[in-house]
Amino acid sequence: MRSVSVLGATGSVGESAFDLLMRAGGPAAFRTVALTGGANVARLAGMARALRAEIAVTAWPEKLTELRSLLAGSGTEAAAGSAAVAEAAARPADWTLSAIVGAAGLPPGLEVLNRGGTLALANKETLVAAGPLVMSRARDTGARILPVDSEHSAIFQSLQGEDLDSVEHVTITASGGAFRDWPLERLALATVAEASRHPNWAMGQRITIDSASMFNKALEVIEAHEFFGLQPERIRVLVHPQSIIHAMVTHRDGGSIAHLGAPDMRHAIGYALNWPARAELPVAKLDLAALGSLTFSAPDEARWPALRLAREAMLAGGASGAVLNAAKEQALDDFIAGHIRFTDMAPAVERALDLAAREPGFAQSPGDLDAVLAWDRFARRAAAQGRGAA
Ligand code: NAD
Ligand code: MG
């Protein structure tokens, strides 16, 4: 029986993974090692009971007593805190999904790679903040990373049986998020509630707002650069409001292979779960005649400066990814808290990148977790500095 762990089980991606595991037979089909979550310990305990997990971990230490009592008599061990999340990730499992949001996913993700495990990676921040470190760790230990971000899963699937050297460029699509059609001058007035509504995908609040600002696509471009080793000029972004084509690989001979599917994360998670096989999944099959048409446009960089920042960060290399990611997280926190406007986020990230570029060592890509975390702290401070200056 295969063993699995799900980090960030109580989130949007985590719930989709739980759904797939339960449909596949739950504890009769998989041995669940670890499930981790945050404040929602009732949901975490419910999942742990349903899957008969060995251990359930909340990242929030103050929630330990509650989790323990929810798990009483279940046979599932309870633990709490970031170190416990990383320890749970280090427990041997055949397949581990990282569906934690933010840079908090990096330490447990590295633990999976350290033990040479298979890491199904939804947590794009792992590759954005520490791509070279993560990829070299995987090479050293023989660990495998399977992309779960839908665009990267789409590229990965489109590349099966193909030679990366024959690829001229890849295209990842973007829905355009909540504000695709808003007049530019209205963007500064966008509220958190408005930015939290995605036209096509049901996702966690943070990635939904990142979709409206295009920072999600900025992270994904860097993620593709790090994971597939593609140079920045070989990665394109295309606005595609219907979110049916997720990505496309264009070969030097003029042929393009696109990946199409309903916007449902259970496809990409299920693909990674069953890889290299394919299994029946509860995902709606496309009816293109009913859809009628798919539309596309080039992204407007005046509307979405995040895409320019991603390109500049890739060209600068070094600590850029760690800085861009953490500065973005800080700016997003500040927008959600009402300290800055929607349109202040990109300038905050740009300020952090500019300040970081003047620091010694910026040109070297961080060689270990501590170095990544030091840049992460620097970037959060730098991004927060301009707060209220708007
Ligand atoms: P979410 O906010 O719905 O869930 C996040 C999960 O991480 C929860 O279980 C939460 O408890 C846990 N968590 C939050 N902070 C934590 C911390 N500090 N330490 C440990 N655990 C913590 O997020 P989501 O939308 O499911 O996204 C998860 C990841 O997957 C993100 O990296 C996101 O970019 C990526 N992703 C999401 C989708 C999607 O459809 N939601 C699609 C592609 C990629
Ligand atoms: Mg994506």
TrEMBL record:
Gene3D superfamilies: 1.10.1740.10, NAD(P)-binding Rossmann-like Domain. Pathway: Isoprenoid biosynthesis; isopentenyl diphosphate biosynthesis via DXP pathway; isopentenyl diphosphate from 1-deoxy-D-xylulose 5-phosphate: step 1/6. Residues 260-381 form the DXP reductoisomerase C-terminal domain. The keyword RNA-binding does not apply. Residues 145-228 form the 1-deoxy-D-xylulose 5-phosphate reductoisomerase C-terminal domain. Mn(2+) binds at D149, E151, E220. NADPH binds at T10, G11, S12, V13, G38, N40, N123, E125, G204. It catalyses: 2-C-methyl-D-erythritol 4-phosphate + NADP(+) = 1-deoxy-D-xylulose 5-phosphate + NADPH + H(+). Its EC number is 1.1.1.267. It comes from the Bacteria. Its cofactor is Mg(2+); Mn(2+). GO terms for molecular function: 1-deoxy-D-xylulose-5-phosphate reductoisomerase activity; isomerase activity; manganese ion binding; NADPH binding. The keyword Hydrolase does not apply. Keywords: Isomerase, Isoprene biosynthesis, Magnesium, Manganese, Metal-binding, NADP, Oxidoreductase. Residues 4-131 form the 1-deoxy-D-xylulose 5-phosphate reductoisomerase N-terminal domain. 1-deoxy-D-xylulose 5-phosphate binds at K124, S150, E151, S175, H198, S211, N216, K217, E220. One of its GO terms (biological process) is isopentenyl diphosphate biosynthetic process, methylerythritol 4-phosphate pathway involved in terpenoid biosynthetic process. PANTHER family: 1-DEOXY-D-XYLULOSE 5-PHOSPHATE REDUCTOISOMERASE (PTHR30525), 1-DEOXY-D-XYLULOSE 5-PHOSPHATE REDUCTOISOMERASE, CHLOROPLASTIC (PTHR30525:SF0). Belongs to the DXR family. Catalyzes the NADPH-dependent rearrangement and reduction of 1-deoxy-D-xylulose-5-phosphate (DXP) to 2-C-methyl-D-erythritol 4-phosphate (MEP). This is 1-deoxy-D-xylulose 5-phosphate reductoisomerase. It comes from Paracoccus aminovorans. The gene is dxr.
